[in-house]
Specification:
2 domains; single chain; Rossmann fold; 5-stranded parallel sheet
Amino acid sequence: MNKTLLSNNYVKDILNQPVALQDTIIELEKQTLTPFHLLSEKLSNHSLKRVVLTGMGSSYHALHPISLSLLEHGVQTLMFETSELIYYAPRLVSPETLVVAVSQSGRSAEIVQLLEMIHHEVPMIGITNTPESPLAQQADLTLFTRAGNEFSVSCKTYIATLAVLSYLGEVLLGKQPAGIFSDLQITVEQMSAYLKIWEKHVDYLTRDLNGINSLILTGRGSSLAAANTGGLIIKEAAHFHAEGMSSAAFRHGPFEMVSPEMMVLVFGGIGAGKPLNANLVVDIHKAGGRAEFVSFNGGDNPYVLPSVPISQLSIMEILPAQMISIALALLNHHDPGTFEHSSKVTIIS
């Protein structure tokens, strides 16, 4: 691997993710549970009727796992991109709604508009990496990621956000977070093991992806977080066409695009959707296309991840997409993670 890549700031951020995750765990362990359990009681007795989860970009996609967890436990939960919420569903932002707003910067255009709309009249939990931000200052309760500064494309902040949301999902259900802390600690170790051989992963992927002109990432359930975030970061970091969608949505039309020049990355996930995802890979191969299945059996293949507790699969699932973003940037003769038309914080909605 050339020395230029070793000094790339995006690559450095990816390799620093275990530290960011560990620092975020330490931050979460300091939290007082009482205010979150009071909100849990209000959700149980229906004085709070619903939870609205909102964010933009990877902050939005990271909400998939907590959304499914709350729904599974009977909490009415809705996911909205913040831009859609403020322009097309403002009536949901009411005193009977608990808003969970996620923004790495805490000051993106849409989040600032949401804060102006709420005027402290709606209960809000903010999740951000920026303590001095408007979101941190105005939310009723704030949970901080401790990812440190990030060069460009979301990586450290994304996995730290997933960790915080995993914690929040437990405490909003009135549970103790000790089990989540244990699961997160295992995940730190397994992420470190995967990233220890990142150069080998990138070398493998540079060969494996050579010749493709499009990449589709698919999954079901909580794996939609990785599929959609993966599609986003590959466009940003590699300037390469990539799209994330559900595995079912891929069968409804995009399957017609299957060819040797298009790679489909299928996240295996868990539950009833896992065999359906495996069947999708088989069917793509039968149609003459290329597909890889992301699983958790261990080994040194970049598509096969070290095993972690089920609660933290989403954190690990983004790692192959990150490795792919580096490999495709190299193939595309682009400096990985370097923005040309955008900036880290979007200030125009």
